[in-house]
Design brief:
171 residues, alpha/beta, Glutaredoxin, five-stranded mixed β-sheet, two-stranded antiparallel ribbon, 7 strands, cytochrome c-type biogenesis
């Protein structure tokens, strides 16, 4: 009898672990969806000016958190390059916890899909945005509200089924 309680506890913990392993980490809900994008003011990657949330309002856009050290960012990069060639998609990059030189080298090598790039060296703005890691992409409506958060590299399927409809463009 005295062994039943520890055995039951172990079985319950194993059950929780099994359920947890089945969850998709890309489906973590964001409490920011439906709310205005967080206020921020960050230097541009080239250091020539400041980019802030107020300047980005008025048009739908994608805000993509990325870094040169991020392997999954490289996976989604060809899709970002394709999307940047479209006239109906505006992608703003926020370089996350990265050095200016590394980010600029990475863009020179792989191409620049961003209409603007802000640099969040310390990751402070990323905390306000609820960034878990990179890449993460936020769909922002013309009023400046977050309508969707894509965790991890965006795939063509993600673009067609989740992102493009929320951005209001054809896939």
């Amino acid at each position: 009898m005295r062994y039943l309680i520890p055995i039951a506890l172990v079985l319950v913990l194993v059950g929780f672990l099994a359920v947890g392993l089945e969850l998709d980490p890309r489906k973590v809900p964001s409490p920011l969806v439906g709310k205005p994008m967080p206020a921020f003011s960050l230097p541009s990657l080239d250091g020539s000016r400041t980019i802030d949330d107020a300047a980005l309002r008025g048009r739908p856009l994608l805000i993509n958190y990325w870094a040169s050290w991020c392997r999954p960012c490289l996976e989604e990069h060809p899709l970002m390059m394709q999307l940047s060639a479209r006239s109906d998609v505006n992608i703003v990059g926020i370089n996350y916890k990265d050095s200016r030189a590394d980010a600029q080298r990475w863009l020179a090598r792989h191409g620049n899909p961003f209409s603007e790039i802000a640099q969040d060296v310390e990751g402070v703005a990323g905390l306000d945005w609820g960034v878990y890691g990179v890449p993460e992409t936020f769909v922002i409506d013309a009023a400046g509200s977050i309508v969707y958060k894509q965790i991890g590299p965006m795939t063509v399927h993600d673009w067609q089924t989740e992102v493009a409809p929320r951005l209001g463009v054809r896939p």
